[in-house]
């Protein structure tokens, strides 16, 4: 986490959020809505109808020029050169030892243009690393600091977009998962991708910050009759946890190699990016690995809590990275890094909950998977 | 975010409210505290007969995002905990000064509490 000595930067949608009565949280140097009214209601709306998220704090930058895809492959461990225009891929930025500097989504906009969306907390690290790694190639790295990002997530997301006044995207209905298309909002060009971080169908729309508030209102007006509500970062976190998606700073960090997080498949076999070779070496016998844990009752394990093999052991065999009472499932869920001997499904482990030990069971991730029709 | 604080209650810097009635204090957490926590999903409260002491942690209040601690604002003995609120913790968010009360405690000595105006100043209202 970066130092938070400077005043928080407001989102371009700050006035909208204030008018809606949001509570704010400082996140990676930004003041962002943590919830509008009830994080549980916002969570449920995303599972049952749709949620509207402001993600303007996230880093957006492009690589443009004849070597755009090659340059992306110098920095990231995926093969962007093999990605058709209009497609997106989850990827990683690694350090030389294979530790995770950030997880990103990379979008191939055109043969000579690539968009990368990275975590807000890692904005500077990612842009600096990519710039260093593409030096000498015929490519320009542009930090899109003046763009907002708005997500519509949930089973009604496509319908919300279809009914949004002024939003035009060709063949929205046939835009596949992990695809991106150009569109417009009024006279403003937008990029619209069928991606997200909630486990539901949904879209992320990149738009110049100056037009973001108008788009936010149009989406809200179209969506409210369909059950859409504005949702904050608290709901986003419980949604992504249910979906088993890693969060940088919790499940991912420089001390974690991708295979520990079950992300070995993200590292392309042919990648020569920094860290790729180290990341490809298989999991060692002593390396902890990421597991899902479920418990009973209502008390949830929280990030940082120690995990033990039994009720009396003094040496922990793991640590919780994220945990919550699952709003959808109704029982506690958590992710943890544990020793390999304790990582098999159905193993019973114990979490120290502020002095008492709660039994939990190892399960495979995700906790929640949407029904696809 | 401009909800008025009830004038007839005392408050603590740990965001509890206290209603004094004879030698009994009813204790809850303020609307501000509930809003800061987010949706409350679990309460762990001391049972009837438990001794509590001023400033000590006597219970836990968990939201989807975090764990909050309940501090006792006074020395005494628990007469009753709000079992309805334990069963339906969202009551604390919905009605923090009413149905969302947490404990009734019999005390020997009345504690020093903040007035509504003093507490409002503390939380910047």
Characteristic key phrases:
heterodimer; A: 373 residues; alpha+beta; Gyrase A, domain 2; Elongation Factor Tu (Ef-tu), domain 3; seven-stranded mixed β-sheet; six-stranded antiparallel beta barrel; 8 helices; globular; B: 125 residues; OB fold (Dihydrolipoamide Acetyltransferase, E2P); six-stranded antiparallel β-sheet; three-stranded antiparallel β-sheet; 4 helices; 35% strand
Q: Your description of this structure?
A:
The complex is a heterodimer of chains A (373) and B (125). Chain A has 373 residues and is of the alpha+beta class. Chain A is built from eight helices and 21 strands. Among the domains of chain A are: 9-58 and 146-243, Gyrase A, domain 2; 288-363, Aminomethyltransferase beta-barrel domains (Elongation Factor Tu (Ef-tu), domain 3), CATH 2.40.30. The mean pLDDT of chain A is 96. Chain A: Keywords: Aminotransferase, Transferase. Chain A: Substrate binds at residue 204. Chain A: InterPro entries: GcvT, GcvT/YgfZ/DmdA, GcvT/YgfZ_C, GcvT_C, GCVT_N, TrmE/GcvT-like.
Write the layout of secondary structure elements.
The complex is a heterodimer of chains A (373) and B (125).
Chain A: E1 9-10, H1 14-19, E2 23-27, E3 30-35, H2 39-48, E4 50-54, E5 59-64, H3 68-75, E6 88-94, E7 100-110, E8 113-118, H4 123-133, E9 140-143, E10 147-153, H5 157-162, E11 167-169, E12 180-185, E13 188-193, E14 202-208, H6 209-223, E15 228-231, H7 233-242, H8 276-280, E16 289-295, E17 306-308, E18 318-325, E19 332-338, E20 348-353, E21 356-363
Parallel strand pairs in A: 1-3, 4-15
Antiparallel strand pairs in A: 2-3, 4-10, 5-8, 5-9, 6-7, 7-8, 10-14, 11-12, 12-13, 13-14, 16-19, 16-21, 17-18, 17-20, 18-19, 20-21
Chain B: E1 10-11, E2 16-21, E3 24-29, H1 31-37, E4 40-44, E5 51-52, E6 57-63, E7 67-71, E8 76-81, H2 83-87, H3 90-94, E9 103-107, H4 116-122
Antiparallel strand pairs in B: 1-2, 2-3, 3-9, 4-6, 5-8, 6-7, 8-9
Domain Aminomethyltransferase C-terminal (chain A): 288-368
GO molecular function (chain A): aminomethyltransferase activity; transaminase activity
Pfam families (chain A): GCV_T, GCV_T_C
């Amino acid at each position: 986490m970066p130092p938070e000595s400077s005043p928080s930067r407001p989102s371009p949608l700050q006035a909208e959020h204030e008018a809606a009565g949001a509570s704010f949280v400082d996140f990676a140097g930004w003041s962002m809505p943590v919830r509008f009214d009830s994080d549980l209601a916002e969570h449920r709306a995303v599972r049952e109808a749709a949620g509207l998220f402001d993600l303007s704090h996230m880093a957006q930058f492009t690589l443009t020029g004849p070597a755009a895809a090659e340059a992306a492959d110098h920095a990231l461990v995926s093969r962007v050169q093999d990605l058709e225009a209009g497609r997106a891929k989850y990827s990683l930025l690694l350090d030389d030892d294979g530790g995770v500097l950030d997880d990103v989504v990379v979008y191939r906009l055109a043969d000579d243009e690539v968009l990368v969306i990275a975590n807000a907390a890692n904005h500077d690290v990612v842009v600096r690393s990519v710039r260093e790694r593409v030096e000498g190639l015929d490519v320009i790295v542009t930090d899109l600091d003046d763009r907002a990002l708005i997500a519509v997530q949930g089973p009604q997301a496509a319908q919300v977009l279809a009914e949004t006044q002024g939003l035009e995207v060709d063949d929205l209905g046939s835009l596949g998962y992990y695809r991106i298309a150009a569109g417009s909002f009024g006279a403003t060009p937008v990029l619209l991708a069928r991606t997200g971080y909630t486990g539901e169908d949904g879209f992320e729309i990149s738009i110049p910050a100056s037009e973001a508030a108008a788009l936010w209102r149009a989406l809200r007006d179209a969506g409210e009759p369909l059950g859409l509500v504005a949702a904050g970062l608290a709901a986003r976190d419980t949604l992504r946890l249910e979906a088993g998606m890693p969060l940088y700073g919790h499940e991912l960090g420089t001390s974690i190699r991708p295979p520990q997080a079950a992300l070995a498949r993200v590292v392309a076999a042919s990648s020569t990016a920094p860290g790729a070779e180290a990341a490809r070496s298989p999991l060692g016998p002593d390396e902890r690995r990421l597991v899902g844990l479920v418990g009973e009752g209502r008390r949830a394990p929280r990030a940082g809590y120690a995990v033990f093999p039994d009720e009396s052991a003094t040496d922990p065999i793991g640590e919780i990275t994220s945990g919550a009472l699952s709003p959808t499932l109704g029982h506690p869920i958590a992710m943890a890094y544990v020793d390999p001997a304790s990582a098999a499904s159905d193993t019973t482990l114990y979490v120290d909950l502020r002095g008492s030990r709660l039994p939990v069971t190892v399960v495979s991730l995700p906790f929640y998977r949407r029904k696809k029709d | 975010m401009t909800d008025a604080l009830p004038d007839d209650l005392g408050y603590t810097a740990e965001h509890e409210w206290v209603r004094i009635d004879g030698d009994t204090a009813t204790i809850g957490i303020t609307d501000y505290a509930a809003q800061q926590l987010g949706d409350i999903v679990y309460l762990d409260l001391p049972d009837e007969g438990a001794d509590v002491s001023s400033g000590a942690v006597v219970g836990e209040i968990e939201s989807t995002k975090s764990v909050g601690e309940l501090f006792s604002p006074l020395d005494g003995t628990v007469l009753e905990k709000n079992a309805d609120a334990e069963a339906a913790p969202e009551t604390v968010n919905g009605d923090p000064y009413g149905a969302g009360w947490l404990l009734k405690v019999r005390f020997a000595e009345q504690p020093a509490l903040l007035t509504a105006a003093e507490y409002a100043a503390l939380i910047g209202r």
